[in-house]
Write a structure and sequence with these properties.
- The chain is mainly β.
- 0% of the residues lie in helices and 52% in strands.
- It contains no helices and eleven strands.
- The protein is globular, with a radius of gyration of 13 Å.
- The termini are far apart.
Length: 114
């Protein structure tokens, strides 16, 4: 059974930081490209950051320089370090595993507000 479980979301003030984690099971993690997506109320889901099997990363323009995606193949976990958060980063954040089959986590909510 494949599971992607996000954690680390919550309420943070503007300028603050959060670190999201996505623990996986049931997939051959090193063989999957991993990504973080987000969906704000009334908006489409968008790619925030991605990391290939070999560790190459890419970011949405809106988060470049503020967010960092990383992976730990031994722990089968992908992370998203989010710094200098703004209210525009408020959204549900989803972990994605892209391979022969695509898998999604259930999401974790991030709210940036004073």
């Amino acid at each position: 059974q494949v599971e992607l479980v996000e954690s680390g979301g919550g309420l943070v003030q503007p300028g603050g930081s959060l670190r999201l984690s996505c623990a996986t099971s049931g997939i051959s993690f090193p063989n999957y490209a991993m990504g973080w997506y987000r969906q704000a109320p009334g908006k489409q889901r968008e790619l925030v950051a991605g990391i290939t099997r070999l560790g190459t990363t890419n970011y949405a323009d809106s988060v470049k320089g503020r967010f960092t995606i990383s992976r730990d193949n031994a722990k089968k976990t992908v992370y998203l370090q989010m710094n200098s958060l703004t209210p525009e980063d408020t959204a549900d954040y989803y972990c994605n595993a892209g391979g022969p089959t695509m898998y999604w986590g259930q999401g974790t909510q991030v709210t940036v507000s004073s």
